[in-house]
Structure formats: structure tokens, C-alpha cells
Amino acid sequence: MNYKQQVAQALVAIVDGNLTEEEIIAKIEIPKSSEMGDYAFPAFALAKAFRKAPQMIAKDLVEQIDQSQFESVAAVGPYVNFFLNKAAFSQDIIEQVLSNGSKYGASDVGHEGNVPIDMSSPNIAKPISMGHLRSTVIGNSIANILAKINYNPIKINHLGDWGTQFGKLITAYKLWGSEAEVKADPINKLLEYYVRFHKEAEENPELDVEARAWFKKLEDGDEEAIELWTWFRAESLAAFNKIYDMLGVQFDSFKGEAFYNDKMDEVVTMLKDKNLLKESQGAEIVDLEKYDLNPALIQKTDGATLYITRDLAAAIYRKRTYNFVQSLYVVGNEQANHFKQLKAVLKEMGNDWSDDMHHIPFGLITQGGKKLSTRSGRVILLEEVLNDATDLAKKQIQDKNPDLPNAEQVAKDVGVGAVIFHDLKNERMNNFDFVLEEVVRFEGETGPYVQYSNARAQSIIRKAGDVTISESNNELSDPAAWDTIKLLGDFPKIIKRAAKEYEPSVVAKYAIHLSRAFNKYYANSKILVDDDQKLARLALVQSVSVVLTESLSLLGVNAPKEM
Questions:
Q1: Which residues pair with residue 155 across a beta bridge?
Q2: 195 in helix, strand or coil?
Q3: Which H or E run includes 298?
Q4: Between 357 and which of 103, 327, 369, 409 could a Cys-Cys bridge form, CB atoms 3.0 to 4.6 Å apart?
Q5: Interior CA angle at 14 toward 11 and 20, to 5°?
Q6: Are 449 and 515 in contact (CB under 8 A)?
Q7: In the 8-state DSSP scheme, what is residue 4?
Q8: Strand ranges (DSSP E) for 439-543?
């Protein structure tokens, strides 16, 4: 039942045709606290038509409204405040949650439409750092949320396995590297060479010239260059997959930049055929002045291609392969201009489907307020952070529950989940400083707090023993349970909002609010006392666990039943 619609129908019957049901729905507000009502209609909207003060209109409306469907209706100043029938509402919501289980909140907004999601995309031959966390977990959560409303997300790890950095890496390896060193510690050694290259190139610019020459060899299929590149890529993927396993993230495709190396000639030809390429200082560009953008550089003077050339090839390949309804790029905000150029070039080529491509930007994770940078060597390795978080969780679990079975797995779920949740509770565009001790706390707005709230709900159900929690006869009139029940009713619209805004923080913040409301209810109510509402209270507790578990799942976080 749509309760806002119920309120609107009660009003439309008495406003003498001055407002339609849709207009009333658009004006209905939600009071700040349940004590002031569940919905409020501002009588200002009728002041002109009724030629009365809004306070008087509110009183008149209350006298005329059929209140039989509501607990009560009251005029509070210029507002008409509606209090829903708690027993009927609780029965309706709890029945929906328990009958649908993990499918509660699902809908068919997406009609199984394909949505490629370009996410994570680390550069080969560099360790996965904290800098890669955001793209990975935001992309994964958006995929989960879109799947919930029946889109078909396709998670693509568009690996940075091509480009001038490989010229730099090959140059560095040829100058200072050793096969034995790389085999012993692949990723860290390759990073060491890369960082050294940048330091040495500041003093010796000829190194950059040599690096560009090696990349051109790689593009032209030089045997030695290809052999080194293939080796670096294989070692990197093995290291990456270990971390993705820790995060519980899987991909549908690892097609990176190199995959499009033989697909760029077609793009250049298409641009030429449409007379879009212009020569500028020996390079080939597409003029984007009418979009108020700088020219898109398609080919350098030496014929080498750029990121945008490969991204054009990738976009065209994905449209042909998936016939997507949306195509998402979960990439940092600093690349915003690149994606504007990419869409503009595709639009110039006559591809109106570029309107369905969306850059999903995000802010930075900082340390001490400073940006993390691979090039300068200031790297926080993601694997180390996840291990440290797990250790910290393990210590807290040992203090709280030393006899916990399966403590190792729970510590991983809590530690890794804490890192993921902390990232996703922050709105995408916000920068945030990462302090591990604050992230892995069992109190406050943290992942462990939400997990612990769910584990508490599960513990209550275990303590209840052998009882049958049913979907029916769950009319709860207990005012202490009301905020929790209303939040459960909000879950379906929370999912739709998170999907529409590509914003996992909507779900994370909701999970925190539901946990808070439930813990307040738990603190003020004797749930297991034997009376005629005991089973209804247990049904509410079970419903909370269902929705908290599903909220965490949408974020890519596990929900242990004991902590």
C-alpha cells in the first residue's frame, strides 16, 4: 500500500478540486520526528484558493477529513499532520519483508537491460593501493544495486595494460632490473623501478625519449617489448586477483586497454570518413569548440594513440557487444574532462547512444590530508590495509566474545567489511581521510556497528528458541517500535534512490539509521517477554535482520550471524 497516496486521497476528497491527487502528493512532507506525525500537508498551498490563514485552513481540513484509516489527524499550526495506523502498517511491512526475504525491495525498473560498469582498472606492474579502493567498491556496489532493480550489470576491469607507462617500465627494467629480482617479488620490484625512473627522468629528460620509443615498439609488435609486457601483465593479474578475492569482488571481463590495440585503426578511419579529424602541429585532433571543450587529441605526431582513442574503441565495442541501456565509468573526478570529450567525439560521430554513457566520479582518499600518489612512492597498499583491519577486528572480537566459533572468518568479514563500508558511507564526491582505528570501531557510524546490530537481532531469535515466526498476525502498536517499522518500509525507495543517483552512501546511511532505531528499540523494550505480542516483536526483529543483511550485501559487505 502507498501510504502517501492514502493521505492524498483523504485530502483530495475535501479540497474542492483546488489540488489534484498528484499535486498533493508532491507537497506532502515528512515531519522530523514521529511524535509530530508520519506525514504532513502544508495548508499554505490552499491559502490563495480559500482566502484564509493557513492555520485556519488546517483546522477546517482536520474537521472534514475521514480519519477512519488513520490513528489520528491533527492541525499543528499551518500543517495537517497524519498519524498512520501503527498496527495495520506494521502488519503490512513485516509481511512484505518476511514473505520476500532477500528479494524485499526488488523491482523491475531495469527490465534486464545491460549496463557495462568500467571499474577498478588498476595499472599493470603496480600494486593495488588504497587509491584503487573507491573505484572497485563503488562500482561493485552500484552493480549490486542495479541488479536489485533488474538491470544486468556487466563488471569490466578495464586494466591499465597499455600506454606510455610501459615504455617507462621497460626502459627502467632494461637499465636497472634483474629477472631474478622480479620473479622473487614481482609487483614491489616493478614499482621500485617505476618510481626510480621518474626520479632519474627529472635529471635526465632523455629517459622520457627512450621510454616513448619503447612504447612505440610495443605498439608495433616488437618481440622483446611484447615478451616483457606479457610477463609484467601475468604477474600483476595474479597479485590483483588475490586482493579482489579478499574484497569479495568478481569481474565479468578483464579486457583492458591492450585489447583495443587492433581496434583503433577503425576508429581513426571512421573519424576520417566523417571529416572530423584535423591536423594540428602534426597531430590529429577532433575540434570540440562547440561543446566548449579543448580539442580531443586522437593521434600524436609519431602516430602513437592516446587514452581517448582506446576509450572510443572500447565504447563502440561495448555498444556492439552488449547493446547497453546505460554504460557507466566509475573513475575519479579528475578525469571528468576526459569523459566529456569522449562523449562529445562519439556524439560528433553520430552516436546518440553516447547520451546513455555516464561518468560516475568520486573524491579522493587522503592520508593526513594529502593525496596518495604512486609516482612519488607514497603508497598505502590495499592488501596491507585489509590485513591490518582484519587483525584489529580480531582483537576486538577476542575482547568481546572470546569463545566465538569461526572467529577467523568473522574477523575477516568485519575487518574487510569495515574498510568497504567506511568508503561507501561517504558520499561519492567527498574526499575523506583514512584512519584505520576509526574505521574498525564497533560503535559509531561504522560497518562493524551495522554488522553487530544484525548479529544482535540474530542472537535474540536464537534466544527465543523453537518458535514459529510467521508472516501474518504481526500488528505491533508499540510506539517504541514505530521508527524501526517505518524505516523498514522505506527500504524499497532507498534502493531506487541509490540506483538513480549512483550513490551507495544512500544505502550505507540507511543501514546506520535502521541499526540505531533497532538498538534504541531493543534498549527500551522487553522483546522476549511472554505476552500476546511476543511473536510480532520477534517478526520485527527477524525483519530487521533481513533488511540489514540485504543492505550490507548491496554494499558488498558480509553479515556474520554472531560477533
A1: 117
A2: helix
A3: strand 296-299
A4: 327
A5: 60
A6: yes
A7: H
A8: none
Residue range 386-407, pLDDT digits in tens: 999 999 999 999 998 999 999 9
Q: Which of 140, 128, 132 is nearest to 332 (CA)?
A: 132
Backbone angles phi, psi at 371, to 5 degrees: -65, 140
Which tens digits make up the pLDDT trace of 56-108? 999 999 999 999 999 999 999 999 999 999 999 999 999 999 999 999 999 99
d(CA 446, CA 51): 51
Q: Which amino acid is at 41?
A: F
% helix / strand / coil in the chain, to the nearest 5? Answer: 60, 10, 30
| CA-wise closest residue to 128 among 227, 215, 251, 247 | 247
The whole-chain average pLDDT of the chain stands at 93
Phi, psi of 477, deg, nearest 5: -105, 5
Q: Measure the CA angle with vertex 332, ends 330 and 338; round to 5°.
A: 90
**By C-alpha distance, which of 305, 299, 263, 307 is closest to 282?**
299
**Residue carrying C-alpha cell 522487553:** 526
Distance CA 59, CA 84 (A): 19
d(CA 278, CA 447): 53
3-class secondary-structure state, position 517: helix
Query: Can you tell me the distance from the alpha carbon of 345 to that of 143, in angstroms, rounded to the nearest whole number?
Result: 27
In sign, the C-alpha dihedral spanning 458, 462, 464, 465 is: positive
Angle at 384 (CA atoms; ends 549, 166), nearest 5 degrees: 110
Phi, psi of 442 (to 5 degrees): -90, -5
Residues counted in the chain:
563
Q: How confident is the model at residue 188 (pLDDT cuts 50, 70, 90)?
A: confident
Quote the CA–CA distance of 219 and 262 in Å, as a whole number.
9
Is residue 374 over pLDDT 60?
Answer: no
Describe the strand order of the beta sheet including 432-433 as a list of residue ranges: 370-371, 365-367, 432-433
d(CA 340, CA 357): 10
